[in-house]
Amino acid sequence: MSVTATVPRRRRRLAVAAGVSLLAIAATGCSGLGRTAVGPVTYTTEREAVIQVNSPSVRGCHRITPAGAHEVENGTLVDVILYRTRDCTGRGTTYVPTRFSDVTAPGSGPWRSYSFVH
Prior knowledge:
Layout: H1 3-30, E1 40-45, E2 50-54, E3 62-63, E4 69-74, E5 80-83, E6 94-96, E7 100-103, E8 113-116
Antiparallel strand pairs: 1-2, 1-4, 3-8, 4-7, 5-6, 5-8
């Protein structure tokens, strides 16, 4: 075996090892518990204040300001469920798909929390 044949083989092994390492790091980063819903959730309060939350966690219940919101825009890559309660429970939920928005009906109460479908 010549020295010139050994060098390319060694470089290939190093390249494969580096590629496998990078793939493992990428897979670990994507599977973490800290996943976010990439993009903003924007809502308008009863007093017409516009609040934008960028890339919130996909886990858990997210509270909206105490006064609630009458308009919500889901600009994330994950579907949202809106709730009339502060703890993401109860009836009267509204499903808002990715890149859609929803407005409360006249006479209905405001939304007070939201969670993600994941």
